[in-house]
From TrEMBL:
Pfam families: AAA_31. It comes from Rhizobium jaguaris. The keyword Ubl conjugation does not apply. Keywords: Plasmid. One of its GO terms (molecular function) is ATP hydrolysis activity. Residues 2-176 form the AAA domain. This is MinD/ParA family protein. GO terms for biological process: negative regulation of cell division.
Length: 258
């Protein structure tokens, strides 16, 4: 049985795609078969973290939603993109990572915005991907905010991971999403605080956020010059395995796996 994890944030810019990709890498390093699907169709970008050239893609999620191909035809094996600082693939035997990217073509994005698509097709695609690729985990990188696709992703999730920055607007938006998730009875809700200044008291910040939401804080992830330097050029989890960000990723996975 595939475990479905949705990563979501009320606003953009929280680092949601970056965390999703690093979680996928961490799961593959633990020997799991993991799929990542980029449903942030209006502003896709997770492919860059796995060093996928979007101009060389045969099919994307958009093609599946318009009926041009099956969903597994859009899935790329990105295991070879999970490398260490020396460019060596570090995933053990049995571990695999697959990515379903969205199109960055302006015409495709404009069509989504104008015509929409049948959300049930997306749900069917999730299910077929899990079965046909024999996934242990499916990670859904959602579109920020609340819309029909987001509600679908939340509703089918075993775990919903909500990212927020230490910012009042993020705090208020997260409360709205948490209320929706509780109404949809998501089995596991986790908060992740991202882009916290290294000068902050992480333990105090975690405790204050838990007290506000009564929801487990899986990790407080730092904003540092090292992370800014890496940016979207690769996966912190494998490029800097001893970094505090990588330790946070592993702490999150311990909760998800448990």
């Amino acid at each position: 049985m595939t475990k479905i994890i949705s990563t979501h944030s009320y606003r953009g810019g929280t680092g949601k795609s970056n965390l999703t990709a690093n979680l996928a890498a961490g799961l593959a390093l633990r020997g799991y078969r993991v799929g990542v699907i980029d449903t942030d169709i209006q502003s896709p970008g997770i492919h860059t973290l796995f060093k996928v050239d979007p101009h060389n893609l045969r099919f994307t999620l958009n093609d599946y939603l318009w009926g041009r191909c099956g969903v597994t035809e859009t899935a790329l094996d990105v295991t070879s993109g999970i490398v260490d600082e020396n460019g060596m693939v570090v995933v053990p035997d049995g571990g695999r990572a697959f990515l379903v990217p969205s199109s960055i073509k302006t015409g495709e994005i404009a069509r989504i915005l104008k015509e929409k698509y049948d959300v049930e097709d997306l749900n069917t695609g999730f299910q077929n991907l899990c079965v046909e690729l024999k996934l242990d985990y499916l990670l859904i990188d959602t579109h920020p905010g609340v819309n029909e696709e987001t509600l679908l992703s939340i509703a089918i999730s075993d775990t919903l991971m909500l990212l927020l920055r230490p910012d009042i607007q993020d705090y208020q938006g997260t409360a709205v999403t948490l209320e929706l998730a509780r109404k949809l009875e998501v089995p596991q809700l986790l908060l992740v605080v991202n882009k916290a200044l290294e000068s902050f008291d992480f333990q105090d910040l975690s405790q204050r956020i838990f007290s506000s939401y009564r929801t487990p804080v899986a990790a407080v992830l730092p904003l540092s010059t090292d992370l800014v330097r890496i940016g979207s050029t690769g996966l912190v989890r494998t490029l800097s395995p001893d970094h505090a960000f990588s330790a946070g990723v592993e702490a999150i996975l311990d909760l998800v796996e448990g």
